[in-house]
Each structure stands twice: as C-alpha cells, then as structure tokens.
Amino acid sequence: MTGQTHGGKGSKRRPTAKSFHDNWDAIFGDKAEEVSEFDWECLKCNKGLSEDDLYIVEDVNHEPFGDTTVERIEHIAHCSACGEEAMDVS
Length: 90
Hints:
The protein is mainly beta. The protein has a domain at 35-88. Helices cover 13% and strands 36% of the residues. The chain contains one helix and five strands; from the N terminus they run H-E-E-E-E-E. It has one helix at 17-28, and strands spanning 40-42, 48-49, 54-65, 68-79, 86-88. The protein is elongated and about 90 Å long.
C-alpha cells in the first residue's frame, strides 16, 4: 500500500454540477399551481362558484374611533344554493 490511502470516508466520486442541478430541479423545482376556473368556493357544498352563483350580504358595524363612532361595512358572499358563506379563491 505505497502512496495509497485506505479508501475510506470521502473517497467516493462526487456528482457533477450538471447532474446536481438537474436533480435539484426534479426534487425542488417549480410546482405548477392548480388553476381553478371559479373565483369562489362554497364552504358547505364544496363546489366552485361564479359571480352569478352568489348573493352578497352587507354587514354594517359601528365601531368606536376616538370620541365618535365610524361605520365599517363588510360585504359577505354567500352560496345561492345552500346559503353558506363562500370563500374567495382567486
């Protein structure tokens, strides 16, 4: 064994830069996002909804602001089929 080490830890050939990057992209690369054709989803029916499948409820809250009160208006979308609140998925 002249001039040679025992071949232990660290003697294995390392991957080339190209194969490393190819494998990196295969594992961690950009995942294609699911694109929904609907902008809204019903939380109860669990189905996609378009603007025509909704009705909007306007909720007016009076909140203190210093010495006065101010109106805070919320628009809440509901499924026209079941009446449950709908979630914006766009």
